[in-house]
Structures are given as structure tokens and as C-alpha cells.
Amino acid sequence: MKMKLFAAAVAVIGGAAAMTVNTPATAHHAFSAEFDADLPVALRGPITRVEWINPHSWIHLDHQTEDGSTQAWMAEGGTPNTLLRRGITRNSLQIGTEIVVTGYQSKDQLCSPACRANGRDITFPDGRKLFMGSSGTGAPDDGSDPTE
After folding, report:
1. Residue 127 three-state SS
2. According to CATH, what is the number of the domain 34-131?
3. Rounded Cα–Cα distance for residues 77 and 83 (Å)
4. Which candidate, 59, 46, 53, 55, places its Cα nearest to that of 117?
5. What angle (nearest 5°) sits at the alpha carbon of residue 116, between those of residues 112 and 120?
6. Structure confidence by residue, pLDDT tens digits, 61-103
7. Which of 30, 90, 99, 142 has a 20 to 30 Å separation from 20 between CA atoms?
């Protein structure tokens, strides 16, 4: 009986230790830690994927470059709850919808697997414009278009 109890205790402790070792650590970051307010972008293209995850949502799109090629981008937005409060729902972000996202490019400027930006505004085909940026992170939020 003692051996079974000992084996059960080892299994529980081992499982708890494995969970703490394998649990990824995530931290919230300030805008300026990852994005550059001096690198504004205007991305135009169809939505290819939307991630409604915390602490930030991500909108993926295929940006049409000036030379006609396509470049994969992912634009970080506020939390899903923040987007909902601003009127952006899962139904308003349909795959294939052509949008324009204005925002700021990441400091690392790496594009593997996709270029990254902090999204500020989304403009829909009907002209509707919605603010998608995070607030309180240091991202520019003066109401102006960062690409003008």
C-alpha cells in the first residue's frame, strides 16, 4: 500500500513539475518595445486570417505592393474585447475582404513568415474606418493617419 501511495505521489509531483517547466511565459509589451512610430505603413489587400487571441488580436492580409507582387503581413490590434467595443466583430473581418490597414512597422523589419505591423486603423471597402490599435501602450493615437 505504501508503494502505491508513493508511486501516486511521484506521478502527481512529476506532472506538476512538467506543467511548470513547459508553461510558456508571456509578457505584455509597450508599443515602442516592438514597433517604430517613425515607420508608418499603409497595407492594402484581402484578409487571409484573423486571430482573436489575447493579449493582442492579429489580422493577416496579402498586401499588394507597388510592383504588383504580394507580400504577407500581420497587423497587431487590441484585445478581442477592445475590438468588439469598437465595433469590429468576427463578422466584419471576413476572409477575402479587401481592407486597408494603416499602422507602424515592427522595428526588426523581418518578414518571415510575414511582415509585422501595429495596426492603427482599418478602412473597409465601403469607406468605414475603425480604430484597431491598442490604447495605453505608447502607440501614436492622435487620430491622424500615420501615412500622411
Report:
1. coil
2. 2.40.50.140
3. 8
4. 59
5. 170
6. 999 988 999 999 999 998 899 889 888 888 889 999 999 999 9
7. 30
